Structure formats: C-alpha cells, structure tokens
Amino acid sequence: MPRFTVVVPLYNKAAYVHRCMDSIRGQSLADYEVIVVDDGSTDEGPEMIQERLGSGDQLIFQENAGPGAARNRAVAAGSGELVACLDTDDEWNPEHLATFSALADRYPDAGMLTAAYASVGEQDPPGEPVLLGGEEEGLIEDFFGVTLRRGRGHPIRGMFCHTSTVVFRRRAFEAMGGYAPVYIGEDIDLWGRIAFEYPVAYVDRVLGLYHRDVEGSICFTWDYAKRPIRPPFLESAERALADDHVPQPMVPSVMQFCAGLLTEYACRLMAAGCPREARAAVDEAMKWGRLPDGYQNIRWTFRMPFPLYRVYRALRSAATRGR
Q: Are residues 72 and 172 in the same domain?
C-alpha cells in the first residue's frame, strides 16, 4: 500500500501535462501511486499522460462530470493512506509529499493538512502565510474562525487552502463522502465538512504553484455573470447544524462564515442583473451573521434600480482604481 494516492483530474489540459507530471516525478518521496481520471477530454492529454504513467499508476476514463466527480473516482481507485490532489495546470515543490508525510505523522488527529502556495499570473504576494502572526506549523481547531480572521470577516479572501496544496487522510475523505457533484465550490464544501469533524494541520511553507494564467481553467471559463452558483457549503452547514454535528464552540464562526459566503453570492447575483434574488441573499446572510467588513451598505445599494446600481458600481470602481 503506497503512502500517497496522487489524484489528478484531467480535462483538456494537454499543454500542461508535462509540467504537472514532471512535478510529481520530481518528488523527493517516491512512496505514491498516481491515479488520473480523464473527465471527457477532447484533446491529446490522455495519450500524453499514458506515456508518463508507471506500473502502479492508473488512467481512468469517464464522461464529463466535473472535477469533484473525477477526484472521487480517483480516490476510490487508489489505496494510499493519504490523498494528495494536483490539478493538471498546477505544480508541486519537490518536497511537497515528503513535507506532508512528516506533518501527518506529527499530527495524527488531523483529517486534512494544508500548506501555503504561490500564485502565478496575478499580483498576489507569493506564499501568503497560512496564519496571520502564526507559527511555522500547527493544528487548527476552528478552520472557520481562522479563515474569517484572515479575511476580516470575508471567507473567500481569508481562505488559506488550495486544492493542489491540500492533503486528506483517506479515512476522513471517505467518512465525508468525498466531493459534492458540483462544478463550483466543491472544494470549500469538502474542507468545511471535514473541519466539522477533524482538526486541520498546516505548515506555513510554499509547497505548490497555483497557475491562474491558464486557458480553459474553470475559474475563468465559468460565466459567473450569467450563472451565479449558490455555494454548496451552505446546505452542508444547514444540515450539520440541524443534526448537531458542529462542535458548539465552532457554531458562531460557522454561522459567520456562511454569512460571508451569502454576501459574495448576493454580489454575483446583482452583477448578473438579479436584484430581487440578490436582496433575498443579503437578507438571508444577515440571519446567519453580520455582513463582512466593507459590505455593510450593500442592502441599500441593492435596492437601487438596477441601471442606477450599475452606474454606482462603475463610479466606485473608478474611485478605487484612482487611489
């Protein structure tokens, strides 16, 4: 049984296959299997992957069902105690698996482990710390509270995890049922469900590169303006709270986390020209908790006639760029 199952979902990323596979083959720890699930690619990516697989690796084909379904299929086909996901357009530091292996041994109760990452293709500061003023490594008991503190009440801005620099214990992944079968938000949903049941271990070192400048990435091809997606974690949180599966000390931060997710969802609804739905999302957010810093005025701005709101947003964006 290998230490790691390396999970690689593949969908029309032939241009990045070599970079992805080279970063796996360049790991200092070689105790792993690679499971690639092709999610209905129409390019030559699967053939390129096949040429680079070892004897214990697998390439599985399925009809297009999204990255979450592809990762679930790969985990089910593997046997490693630890599950490390790598998107085909990202890459790992050579010490990625070795560092996580040691971290898992030091924190046996953690159901999920995470590390810092550097963004490529944007002006983000590379390797932003996992915790503001935190230690080099440690155990996070309240995943939601830490995220909110980092983002000043905004869960997306404060999120310190990334799909390609997160490792799961197989038992935790399977106990939670894996990723939800959705195209957007499946990662935060799974991290949150695991955080209800297990602490999260972290190491404040850059162990991966997140490439934002990738053609065909779902983050850029998904049209949020036309198809805002209600964050799937909201349903998971509602269910967990109703069933008393959220530890009582964690309940306030979970509620506030959901308020932040709904606030962002409301903004996307408004941008898509759905003011009634946006106002409903804001009202719902305020039932969960307070609005994140900087968003306290959106209730009255969302009640403007939509053409006037667009003018207001344009003027505010221009003023922000001019600072």
A: yes
Q: Are 208 and 117 in contact (CB under 8 A)?
A: yes
Range of the domain at 215: 4-220
Q: Are residues 74 and 134 in the same domain?
A: yes
User: What does pLDDT average to over the chain?
Assistant: 89
pTM score, whole prediction: 0.90
**How far is 21 from 2, CA to CA, in rounded Å?**
18
Rounded to the nearest angstrom, the gap between the alpha carbon of residue 128 and the centroid of all alpha carbons in its chain is 16
Q: What would the two tokens of residue 22 be? A: 């080279």
- Write out pLDDT tens, residues 234-292: 999 999 999 999 999 999 999 999 999 999 999 899 888 888 899 999 999 999 999 99
d(CA 214, CA 156): 21
**175, 215, 218: which is closest to 195 by C-alpha?**
175
Domain boundary among 171, 193, 220: 220
pLDDT of residue 123: 53
In sequence order, the β-bridge partners of residue 210 are 119
- Pair (113, 8) in one structural domain: yes
Residue 224 confidence (pLDDT):
47
Q: Please give the structure tokens belonging to residue 14.
A: 């032939």
Distance (Å, whole) CA 52 – CA 12: 17
When divided into structural domains, the chain yields a total of: 2
Rounded to 5 degrees, what angle do the CA atoms 66, 11, 56 make? 100
